[in-house]
Amino acid sequence: LSKSPCFTFDSCTCLLLLLLSTAVFSQNYDDFIVKHTLVKANDVNALEKKTPGKCKGKNTFIDERDEKIFQDMCKAVSKKQFVNLPYNWFDCVTKDIMEPCSYTKENPNEKKRILCEKDKSKNKFLPVHLEAGSA
């Protein structure tokens, strides 16, 4: 058997994981705002408008629309770290994965936390990621 000039399976797997981790960890404040806020309060079907043509199984929204409040979530932070989400939030969960997407609002009892990172352009720590758990 001759050796293929292409990557081995292990090399391809490592490269794929590296690319995926870059996509996951390259989050910023603007993406956070787009992913986790709604223009109209409690409009769970706005999720479909945010991601046309794609049904997302579940997304968490913070029940707040004042951008200063979002920026203040990380006010006491001086390094990259998780903090507990201090505001009301809810999940939009897909009722049916067929198009068009339709969602239902759920208020689970789990805790959520946000990741604060330094935004170099604004020179302050801002939320960039939201996930289940507590800080």
Summarize the structure in words.
By secondary structure, the protein is of the alpha+beta class. It has one domain (27-132): Roll (P-30 Protein), CATH 3.10.130. Helix content is 27%, strand content 29%. It contains 4 helices and 6 strands. It has helices at residues 9-25, 29-36, 46-50, 67-72; strands at 58-62, 81-84, 89-96, 102-106, 112-119, 124-132. The strands form 2 sheets. The chain has a 3-stranded antiparallel β-sheet with strand order 1-3-4, with no helix packed on it. A hairpin with a 5-residue loop joins β3 and β4 (102-106). It is globular. This is Ribonuclease A-domain domain-containing protein. Keywords: Signal. Residues 49-131 form the Ribonuclease A-domain domain.
List keywords for this structure.
globular, 135 residues, P-30 Protein, 6 strands, 3-stranded antiparallel sheet, alpha+beta, disordered N terminus, single chain, 4 helices
Short description:
The chain is an alpha+beta fold and 135 residues long.
Secondary-structure map:
Elements: H1 9-25, H2 29-36, H3 46-50, E1 58-62, H4 67-72, E2 81-84, E3 89-96, E4 102-106, E5 112-119, E6 124-132
Antiparallel strand pairs: 1-3, 2-5, 3-4, 5-6
Q: How many helices in DSSP terms? A: 4
Main β-sheet, in a few words?
A: 3 strands, antiparallel
Secondary structure tally: strands = 6
Low-confidence stretches: 1-25
- Assign the CATH superfamily: Ribonuclease A-like domain
Spatial shape:
globular
Domain unit count = 1
